[in-house]
Amino acid sequence: MNYWKIVKKIATAFGVVFIVFGALSTFVAYEQLDIQYGSSAPASYILLTSLNVMLPFLLYAVLSFVVAVFSSRLAKETDKKEANVGAEAAV
After folding, report:
1. Cα(4)–Cα(72) distance, rounded to whole angstroms?
2. pLDDT one-digit tens code per residue, 70-85
3. How many Å apart are CA 85 and CA 91, to the nearest integer?
4. How far apart are CA 12 and CA 18, in angstroms?
5. How many Å apart are CA 19 and CA 37, to the nearest integer?
6. What is the C-alpha separation between 5 and 21, in angstroms, rounded?
7. pTM as predicted
């Protein structure tokens, strides 16, 4: 059984979940600032605060997708090695 394919699926799912939570946390932060300051808060303050809330989730998403890419490559290498071993055993 090729465990790298399972790792790839899990890492991809985590990446998508982190992006969803990042968007949700940004929306909640924006709504909180809108309620707290109304229209008197500068746009740059709202932008920077929203970005500050979203960045950790984006970092985790990127790391999850990097793990998914590396595990995909390792799965392909494992498949090639198993195919070569099977071909040599058949001879």
Report:
1. 7
2. 998 888 887 777 667 6
3. 10
4. 10
5. 27
6. 24
7. 0.79
